[in-house]
Design a protein that fits this description.
The protein folds into 2 domains: 148 residues, Leucine-rich Repeat Variant; 58 residues, Leucine-rich Repeat Variant. 68% of the residues lie in helices and 0% in strands. The protein is built from 14 helices and no strands. The longest helix is centred in the middle third of the chain and has 14 residues.
């Protein structure tokens, strides 16, 4: 039985095994099969197909993911599509990600979009990422890391504000984001900075190793 036939088998286990087998195929062979899987009645199959498309870059991959982001009825599949678009790092996806953030009210989808904007590294994402900081929860944490990935001088004040945040996890993300930028201006706020949380302090030591 071919993978194409397995993906149309009424047995869910067979279809899931087919998806797993597709992982080993080159992109040109995998993407037409993943396109078929994206129309599966089962959410798990569609989720797996969307996630895998982020590692199988062809011109068709982008369009398939954009369609899933816009049209799939399940929020976790839409979230997987957003994350995969970030993995592709194709700037063509930027407008669709912005529109999806504005339209989709599901927190996991928005979180994935924020993280994807960081992966794209497109300076046009600054406005949305600073908005996401005010949303709290997963979005706020993802936005901190994404701002660091933009590596723009204007993100530094947003990140430094979090160095004294009461939530140590947000302080950690700010330290990591500033460290990842790796510029003199981004590293300056971390010099001599102390933190009573051992995880944050460890991140600071990595960023500012002892001579």
């Amino acid at each position: 039985m071919t993978l194409h036939e397995q993906l149309q088998d009424p047995d869910l286990g067979t279809r899931i095994r087919a998806i797993n087998a597709i992982r080993a195929l080159p992109a040109t062979e995998a993407v037409p099969l993943l396109a078929l899987a994206l129309n599966d009645v089962n959410t798990r199959v569609r989720y797996s197909a969307a996630s895998m498309l982020g590692t199988k870059s062809t011109p068709q991959s982008l369009q398939l993911l954009l369609t899933a982001l816009q049209e799939d009825p399940e929020f976790d599949v839409r979230a997987a599509a957003a994350a995969a678009l970030g993995d592709l790092k194709d700037p063509v996806a930027f407008p669709a990600l912005i529109q999806a953030y504005q339209r989709d009210r599901e927190e996991m989808v928005r979180f994935s979009i924020v993280a994807a904007l960081g992966e794209l590294g497109d300076p046009r994402g600054l406005e949305l990422l600073t908005l996401a900081l005010s949303q709290g929860g997963l979005q706020e944490e993802a936005a901190l890391m994404a701002l660091g990935q933009l590596a723009l001088p204007e993100v530094i004040p947003y990140l430094t504000t979090y160095l004294t945040h009461p939530d140590w996890q947000l302080r950690l993300r700010a330290v990591q984001a500033l460290g990842a930028m790796g510029t003199e201006a981004s590293l300056a706020p971390l010099q001599e900075l102390k933190d009573d949380n051992p995880t944050v302090q460890q991140a600071l030591q990595i960023t500012n190793p002892m001579p």
